[in-house]
Amino acid sequence: MTHPIETRLQDAGVTLPEAAAPAANYVPFVTYGSLLQTSGQLPLDAGKLTATGKLGAGVSLEEGRKAAKFCAINILAQTKAAIGGDWNKVERLLKLTVFVASDAGFTEQHKVANGASDFLAEILGESGPHARSAVGVPSLPLDAPVEIEALFELK
């Protein structure tokens, strides 16, 4: 029987990519007791950034939301790798930390973060409501507009 998370991904037309390998000296996730922490995920689609630049200076709010959704897709790919593909091991998403590369006058980081939060709530169902921080930063690796890390509770 297909797990509800897999069904919701399929219904959303989303196929999770292979979990990306680290680009530097870190691991893509760490488990500690019942906690799973992902490293920051960039908005990669087929190995390429979906957008580059800063919100409020060339990257639109809608492009930022879409980038945040791709970060969330990559978070789920890392999570699936961490749990060996067994979604029954996920109790709930506890927190997202969303970093938004922002022009000095941009103040809608929370709306960019909704691109990830809305998607994860849809896919994770009852396990999806989470705490969140949305932080504006001057730049991110590879000129990505968004980077997101996640903390899950495991069963």
From TrEMBL:
What SUPFAM superfamilies does this protein map onto?
YjgF-like (SSF55298)
Q: Which residues form the Endoribonuclease L-PSP/chorismate mutase-like domain?
A: 6-144
Protein name as catalogued: RidA family protein
List the source organism: Fulvimarina endophytica
By its UniProt entry, which InterPro entries does this protein fall under? Endoribo_LPSP/chorism_mut-like, RutC-like_sf
